[in-house]
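Can't paste images in this forum, so I'm doing it all in text. The chain is below; anyone willing to post the predicted structure tokens underneath?
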Amino acid sequence: MRNGLHLIAEFHRTPWGLLPETLAAMQAVLYRWASGARLSQEEIRAAVGDAPEISAARRDRARAMAPGSVAVLPVYGVIGHRASLVEDSSSGVNTSTELLGQAFSSLMADPAIAGIVLDVDSPGGSVYGVADLAEQIFAARGMKPVSAVANSLSASAAYWIASSAEEFAITPGGEAGSIGVYTAHTDVSKMMEAEGVKTTLISAGKYKVEGSPYEPLGADAREFIQSRVDDYYDDFVRAVARNRKDTQTNVREGYGQGRVLGASAAVKANLADRIATLDQVVADMQSKVRGKSGARAETRPVHTSARAREIDLLNLG
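Text version of the structure:
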């Protein structure tokens, strides 16, 4: 366990836009790893995201769609920043904001693509990279039609991203929301003491070891960590207010206040524009782009895993 303490501490100190129950599952996997257990990628995905066979079935269904002018861009599972995390079986990350941004840029630049639908099924993830990706999607408004669908979950960081689309729909049995940010501090001092280990930190810089896991969290450290969480939450609220054409006060006092809401409640709270299935949203966009071009519009799948990226971008050519 001792060898994994720094990783555990960093995991908890990360600002999360993620459902708490998903973070708990990820924490359980991480603690098993720190204790020496090595889980396969399939075991990790089964614990914190779609089981491999479920993900494969969803992607195969998208792959069966005929190539054409409406691209379906999947946003599945836990969201992380760097592309390499998607290939790291110990990370539990399913979607990289870096890869997703690259795929989105390619679709926007491709003259054969007339519209984009984000197929979202994610509990959220780390806030790192999320604001940049959301800004990128928002900036595309008016250039090409971009819709997002909670199919069936768009929570926290995933909602931050999806709300940036021109239209946000939710499936009849879907959920959306969880607008909030949190982090955690792990105090392992008692556990280390029980093992006969005492750690002395030697540092330079007044706050360099602030929030160390080897001691209880002090008042000053707690206040600073809270300020970081507040800053990210303020960014989240501002983005949603802009994306949904509402006030920050309404977002803070409504929109579920950190809860995920079902389809009808989400529409009523202005989290979503309408209730519709992915197929309905795709069909509506096909009609929309067909009306503009007079040509037949079909769907084209795009995959954002690191292993599939090269093939997918070549298929877009």
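The first strand starts at residue 16 and ends at 18. The mean pLDDT is 80.
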